[in-house]
Design brief:
2 copies of one chain form a homodimer. Chain A is an alpha+beta fold and about 130 residues long. Helix content of chain A is about 50%, strand content about 15%. Chain A has 5 helices and 5 strands. In chain A, the strands form 2 sheets. In chain A, strands 1-2-3 form a 3-stranded antiparallel sheet. Chain A has a two-stranded antiparallel sheet with strand order 4-5. The N and C termini of chain A lie far apart (about 40 Å). The interface between A and B is large, with 39 and 39 residues.
């Protein structure tokens, strides 16, 4: 997550070397909530179905309880929804991120922004005379 | 920076898309303070001289003021030391990281650790019967 496009803070909960939850998986969970299926979540995030399914499957493997489940009454094409555990996981992760963003001292942020050189302008690709 | 090997938090100050300071560059600055030259800092961090020099050079390009300078009286093989600006940059960055680590709620941390499956044991590479 970035503040003002200048400070970038990132949180992950690791299982071994991999993120059991991090910004990408949190987005997948939010998209499942919003769109009601893994395939629709993947489309909304510009991911392949395979990629979205793998992230969702990882989520269900990394925690003691399932994070999402098939929506009731569905068959092969059923939707998916978060379990109560999955909702708590998402809520706690986003709260941790928010606290992290709030921890940045305003004076430090202002100092960094003031001391940083502005990005150099990109060279023009075409010079039309 | 990690907490208990489970939470991993990362801070960067971006200039454009690149980190003008982040964990790697902070380590380089600390190693210059400790070892007194860029080449010795690179060796201490297991980097090539070229890599350490490039990181140090980036640091001097990304901020309005120089971050390090040649130690007084040195020639080609002179040591390097942080400028007062470089010292402030390093101090503020490490303080921002420390505040970020402190922002994590103990109850959230305990919950994540409790809910996470333990890492699967690695498969043995040799089975000697």
């Amino acid at each position: 997550m970035s503040i003002d496009g200048v400070l970038k803070l990132n949180a992950q909960v690791l299982r071994g070397k991999e993120a059991a939850i991090g910004p990408g998986k949190a987005l997948v969970l939010e998209a499942i909530v919003e769109h009601g299926s893994i395939s629709a979540a993947g489309r909304a995030l510009g991911m392949s179905y395979r990629r979205a399914w793998m992230l969702a499957n990882d989520l269900n493997q990394d925690w003691r309880e399932p994070v999402f489940e098939a929506a009731v009454g569905g068959g092969q094409k059923a939707g998916a929804r978060l379990t109560p555990f999955g909702e708590e996981l998402l809520t706690r992760f986003r709260a941790m991120e928010a606290a992290m963003m709030n921890s940045v001292d305003d004076a430090d942020r202002a100092w960094f922004m003031q001391q940083l050189k502005t990005p150099e302008p990109e060279a023009p690709k075409n010079l039309v005379s």
